[in-house]
């Protein structure tokens, strides 16, 4: 285990890309960092899969088929795709309320996601969590839950577990810009620096926290510097540039795995839909309408696609069709799946106590089971 | 009297309090949003300015502490938590600070603070977006706790909470927001600590909290069809709660059902049932029944959600059970069995388990 | 069997658990201090290294979250809170996270976490350094809660808590640290959920929690001199609690006193009294008595402290009161009166008060 | 009310004095900032009053007469004296577990303090708080309580109240270096910057939090920069140099009163006694023994006294005698005062409800009152 006390170099990572709040017009060669051509195509496919799934979920929500609150990831796909491509299978990923993208970028089952969102027993969380609570241990999604900042200390704890066991694993927490307003984010950064935890802190700065623009919540636009006080180095990247994200995440993961400690990556991005549900939330915050128009021209998926076409990839339509097909099949399977039995409601309160806790209300419980 | 919805009544109370008392201000999450607070704070920022209607960063702890400090400095803050679940991050300013300062300094200071906590559940939101934690705050000396069930009380109890020199937790449930009812136009106070008799009756007392008071009234209507005359009390205040009213009713009917939209163990229903059983001991003709949420987190799927939340039928059935006890005697009553302590279960890595050869003797 | 103090027993349990299970580690405040944990963690850092005995910054929330995450990642952490009062800053990781994750993911994950919370009171420390908040955690589904009263249980319940796949709150009270008693040398488990009969008796059941179990035994000795034969149960586990043992005893004696070192309203005593009154209804020959802290924060001065904390005499007196009820009947029993809701009181600036002309009608 | 949103200048205050952890040998001319001669003498007297009171309390604790935990301020007197001298009567001061010095520097009654520490009814908190909970509204001590960081958001709330009412008042929170490890400190700094609150954040960095040296709790020694991320400017001063402290606090208070918002002042200092009680805690942390020896030569009181003598003040012994006399009289009065009545124990739970809450246990209550 690494020494606990020491001084972390703040200049370990030098690939910070400063981006304006209003994106510049999309450029084909974005970050200037070489990503292998085949790899870029995989990233694009990952983003496409997220985009299509989110559009499906938007429709399910609109139709009232999905009842749980759904926070859509459309517009931010490059962050999940880029970061997850930098991780290894045995690394763990932790998320929040807006985590469909993280789950899918890690390779989580589409059917499991749709089923979960629909409240089906076959959902990735057994139909107990809905959109806001996802689990896919087989692909290293260790948990996404919607208490803002809730999983970030947990990710640090997983990183501590890896360190204590001497495993070369990394924990990665995704969270939004608003999340840095929670005090325990700062506590966690101090702990991570102090214990030199193998931790990636990925801040998806989409400029909004619910209805509030960042300028209604803080005075400085400097989120990548959130950990500086504690000795956690930070970088800022264009979060709509999947190559830039991947490069920053690779550097940070490498540093973490080598015992260098945590890194904060601020990814500047924008959600094209509203805070929750399929709408666009044009009625809130400052500047949202203008910003949306500008960011739509900066669509991470289209940018990547343009880039691939410029690189000579001609056969993207085949991928589009296969993603379409996969999505449709997964949705059909999820729709056909059963809801959980009502009588399951008291199970799993305690682990390995299949009947749940003693029922306080014997009669009611019997009634439940009889339904 | 004109009718308002519950949400409108809350909004009107805020507006009138802000108008009549310059010390009142509101701080918390969602105050500048058109949808965040379900209409209960709509446009207040436009009317009273964003200096007095402060939408805040996601910093529950410091924002609540800020309100405590402002109260100590002579203001009458209302700190708004759009979900009680998030307010768990603010337990220090509420429990360690607000609740204690009057006592700590022997009455030299007071904390005239309103902590407004919204319970927002159902809709497949799940375990972290559903909790009704009023029992926590009932347990803490120095706090008062109110849970209005009607539009009229939503207004009157907010005014009472603001007028009170103590920290008052005001809990409103989104399930009540669209309920409509008569609300007086001027500002008025519904006294903290007084239950309301929603229906007079002689056979059994149904004591309801928040929307369970509504269900209790529904249950009473069902029971009436069977010739059972239930008295329905809407508790309204949980701390202090109206012991005289509850005890008087139970002493009259001899039967009680407590209906609480919180968890069972150590919940509000435990306190009320224990108190009735102690203080109306010789009048009780059957055990006090408790209808609560089961001791489980909130599920999401519609099937489990449906099973999780009690209905009026559960309250009616509990009342019948109590009344059957009277007629048929204890032997007919299916006594509850505890499953006992759950057995120790297999570990993730069994070989690592501590030595269990020795089981310590208990006597 | 050799005797250890309660603090030594806790320390030995830690050492043996750390020795036998590489997944176990301890994190929290005071672990590298010679005095912070009252000897209960002495020198563990030297023996097991500071990587596994992590003294932490003053960051209760993140440190507890760290332990939750480590548990989810396959470790068996013990997170140490030197005072339960400070743990109020860690309610989110305990209540929103640890308690919910098994349920949230339909049993696919477990959180084998021990949260050790020390109650450290008396000594004129006052309101923010005295709280025993176990009732909060009893209320929360998904948590288990234990409160050992003897050195033997201090060891056995810590081992049980570490072995359990669920988050367990382990509450130890500094008032017990110097108590001495027999403790087996090897590691053993005291099963969670089982009460211990500390004294068999026939006339009244005294149910004690933590040091109140000790006082209950003292009370039984006082009562024995008067010819009253009390049965004393040490509850040991609060969630799940041993309903079969408690109910069996009360059905036998017909009288019960619950002695809980926490506040009254919505406390552990409320749940236990309500359950007894419901499930042993036909066997009870007097109301269940509750001996608790009063509903007030902890004072500091020696005079008030002396008045604040219950003594064995209070438990004995409660038992006598219950037994008198049997002989003399209800009319002799001084029924408690609530002071009713406190009156609204003068504001700091009365002219600013909301209009109170209209008092809303209640029916 | 000032605009909420805007960018705070980080360079408003330029008097930062960098000090080493190990103090240099005391120098007579310390900060180079002109403080009027008469004022310096008052500061010295304030420090002396604190020192003598603390020594008395150490003895009371040692003798078992004071039973509540007492966290002594000896060694840090220049911070309280300097900061409080920069405040006005109507400003409020908030503190923590180690606040005897803050209370006395504001002019709090010595008898009230001694009586409180002894648990007497005449104590400043009515004998309900002991050493760790002090109140003296008549001198603007709005409350000191021992939950680490507990009063800092409260101070911000008082500052907000002043701002809302348009009063030219400032709230000042004193706290230790360990306190910045609590997340809500960071939340509070963001709120204070966002709302431009008239708030002084005085961090007394005595290098230890309980038994832990700062290097066991963080990786960087940069506490004055804690608010930078949020736009709260910070300065670092030699906390054993009362003139430097006063100058920094004056600048910060001026800035706050003018609507410039909050300032963080890190005062580097050292406590000569242990974390709690009269001992010196030589058994804990790294380097404590060496550090104590070095810091003892840097005693703020002696430094100020040397400075005064160099300035030609010859008659300091008279002051010493009068402080001695005042202390002795206050102590005698406190010792003679009565303890609170036991029956008071249920009072003040709710304000203006003189009988306290309904008693849960009627019989016990009667018993209480009968004692
Ligand atoms: C502790 C807590 N407080 C408040 C909320 C309500 N809430 C849900 S999402 C959200 C906004 C979070 O913003 P950000 O972190 O930027 O993520 P984004 O929604 O932009 O992805 C808030 C305030 C919550 N879920 N948890
Ligand atoms: C929330 C909380 N956590 C822990 C403690 C225990 N505690 C009391 S004082 C203290 C050290 C604080 O250090 P610092 O802020 O540097 O102040 P100092 O004692 O050095 O003056 C700690 C950890 C507490 N009182 N409150
Ligand atoms: Mg955001
Ligand atoms: Mg310190």
The CATH topology label of chain A is Rossmann fold
| β-sheet strand percentage of chain A | 5-15%
Q: What is the structural class of chain A?
A: alpha/beta
Distinct helical segment count of chain B: 12
Q: What is the third-level CATH name, the topology of the largest domain in chain B?
A: Rossmann fold
User: Biggest sheet of chain B, open or closed, and with what strands and sense?
Assistant: 7 strands, mixed
Explained architecture:
The complex is a heterotetramer, with 2 copies of chain A (371 residues) and 2 copies of chain B (363 residues). Chain A has 371 residues and is α/β, with parallel strands linked by helices. Chain A has a single domain, classed as 3-Layer(aba) Sandwich (Rossmann fold), CATH 3.40.50.970. Chain A is 38% helix and 11% strand. Chain A is built from 11 helices and 9 strands. Chain A starts with 36 loop residues before the first helix and ends with a helix. Chain B has helices spanning 6-20, 44-48, 60-72, 91-98, 101-104, 134-139, 151-163, 211-225, 243-253, 268-279, 302-308, 312-328, and strands at residues 3-5, 24-28, 53-55, 76-81, 114-119, 144-146, 168-173, 180-182, 188-189, 196-199, 204-208, 230-234, 237-239, 256-263, 289-293, 358-359. In chain B, α3 (60-72) runs parallel beside α4, α8 packs across α12 and α9 packs across α10 (268-279). In chain B, the strands form 3 sheets. In chain B, strands 3-2-4-5-7-6-13 form a 7-stranded mixed sheet, with helices on both faces. Chain B has a 5-stranded mixed sheet with strand order 10-12-11-14-15, sandwiched between helices. In chain B, strands 1-8 form a two-stranded antiparallel sheet. Mean pLDDT of chain B is 91; it is low at 330-363. In chain B, α8 links the parallel β11 (204-208) and β12 (230-234). Chain B is built from 12 helices and 16 strands. With 363 residues, chain B is of the alpha/beta class. Chain B folds into 2 domains: 3-182, 3-Layer(aba) Sandwich (Rossmann fold), CATH 3.40.50; 196-352, Rossmann fold (3-Layer(aba) Sandwich). Classes of the chains: A alpha/beta (371), B alpha/beta (363). At the B-C interface, α1, α4, α6, α7 and β9 of B face α1, α4, α6, α7 and β9 of C. The complex binds thiamine diphosphate (TPP) (2 copies) and magnesium ion (2 copies). One magnesium ion binds at residues 176-178, 206, 208-209 of chain A.
């Amino acid at each position: 285990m690494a020494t606990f006390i020491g001084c972390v170099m703040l200049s370990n990572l030098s690939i910070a890309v400063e981006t304006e709040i209003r994106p510049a017009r999309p450029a084909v060669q974005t970050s200037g960092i070489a990503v292998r051509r085949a790899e870029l195509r995989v990233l694009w496919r990952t983003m496409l899969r997220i985009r299509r799934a989110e559009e499906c979920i938007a429709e399910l929500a609109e139709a009232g088929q999905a009842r749980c609150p759904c926070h859509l990831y459309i517009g931010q796909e490059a962050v999940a795709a880029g970061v997850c491509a930098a991780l290894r299978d045995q690394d763990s990923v932790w998320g929040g309320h807006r985590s469909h993208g993280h789950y899918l970028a890690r390779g989580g089952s589409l059917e499991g996601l749709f089923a979960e969102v629909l409240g089906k027993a076959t959902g990735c969380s057994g139909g107990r969590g809905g959109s806001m609570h996802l689990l896919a241990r087989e692909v290293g999604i260790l948990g996404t839950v919607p208490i803002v900042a809730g999983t970030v200390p947990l990710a640090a704890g997983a990183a501590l577990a890896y360190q204590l066991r001497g495993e070369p694993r990394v924990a990665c927490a995704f969270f939004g810009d608003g999340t840095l307003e929670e005090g325990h984010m700062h506590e966690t950064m101090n702990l991570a620096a102090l214990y030199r935890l193998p931790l990636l802190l990925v801040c998806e700065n989409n400029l909004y926290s619910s209805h509030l623009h960042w300028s209604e919540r803080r005075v400085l636009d400097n989120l990548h510097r959130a950990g500086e006080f504690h000795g956690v180095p930070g970088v800022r990247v264009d979060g709509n540039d999947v190559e830039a994200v991947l490069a920053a995440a690779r550097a940070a993961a490498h540093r973490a795995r080598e015992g260098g400690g945590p890194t904060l990556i601020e990814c500047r991005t924008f959600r094209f839909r509203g805070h929750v549900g399929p709408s666009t939330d044009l009625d809130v915050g400052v500047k949202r309408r203008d910003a949306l128009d500008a960011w739509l021209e900066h669509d991470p998926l289209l940018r990547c696609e343009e880039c691939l076409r410029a690189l000579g990839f001609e056969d993207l339509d085949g991928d589009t069709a296969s993603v379409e097909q996969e999505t449709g099949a997964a949705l059909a399977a999820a729709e056909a799946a059963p809801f959980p039995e009502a009588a399951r409601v008291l199970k799993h309160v305690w682990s390995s106590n299949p009947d749940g806790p003693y029922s306080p209300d014997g009669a009611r419980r019997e009634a439940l089971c009889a339904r | 009297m004109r009718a308002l919805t519950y949400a409108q009544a809350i909004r009107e109370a805020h507006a009138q309090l802000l108008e009549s008392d310059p010390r009142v201000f509101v701080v918390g999450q969602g105050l500048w949003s058109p949808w965040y607070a379900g209409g209960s704070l709509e446009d207040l920022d436009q009317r009273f300015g964003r200096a007095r209607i402060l939408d805040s960063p996601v910093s529950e702890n410091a924002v609540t502490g800020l309100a405590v400090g402002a109260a100590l400095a002579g203001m009458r803050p209302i700190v708004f938590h759009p979900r009680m679940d998030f307010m768990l991050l603010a337990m220090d300013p509420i429990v360690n600070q607000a609740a204690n300062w009057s006592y700590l300094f022997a009455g030299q200071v007071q904390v005239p603070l309103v902590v407004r906590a919204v319970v927002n559940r159902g809709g497949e939101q799940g375990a972290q977006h559903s909790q009704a934690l009023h029992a926590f705050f009932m347990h803490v000396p120095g706090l008062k706790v109110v849970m209005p069930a009607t539009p009229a009380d939503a207004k009157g109890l907010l005014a009472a909470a603001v007028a009170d020199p103590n920290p008052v937790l005001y809990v409103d449930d989104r399930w009540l927001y669209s309920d409509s009812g008569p609300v007086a136009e001027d500002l008025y106070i519904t006294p903290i600590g007084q239950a309301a008799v929603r229906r007079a009756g002689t056979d059994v007392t149904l004591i309801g909290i928040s929307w369970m008071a509504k269900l209790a009234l529904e249950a009473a209507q069902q029971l009436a069809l069977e010739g059972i005359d239930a008295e329905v009390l809407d508790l309204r205040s949980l701390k202090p709660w109206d012991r005289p009213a509850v005890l008087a009713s139970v002493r009259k009917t001899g039967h009680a059902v407590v209906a609480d939209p919180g968890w069972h163990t150590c919940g509000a229903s435990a306190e009320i049932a224990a108190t009735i059983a102690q203080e109306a001991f010789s009048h009780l003709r059957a055990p006090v029944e408790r209808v609560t949420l089961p001791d489980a987190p909130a599920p999401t799927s519609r099937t489990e959600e449906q099973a999780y939340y009690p209905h009026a039928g559960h309250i009616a059935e509990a009342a019948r059970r109590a009344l059957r006890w009277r007629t048929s005697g204890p032997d007919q009553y299916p006594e509850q069995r505890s499953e006992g302590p759950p057995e120790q279960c297999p570990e993730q890595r069994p070989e690592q388990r501590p030595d269990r050869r020795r089981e310590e003797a208990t006597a």
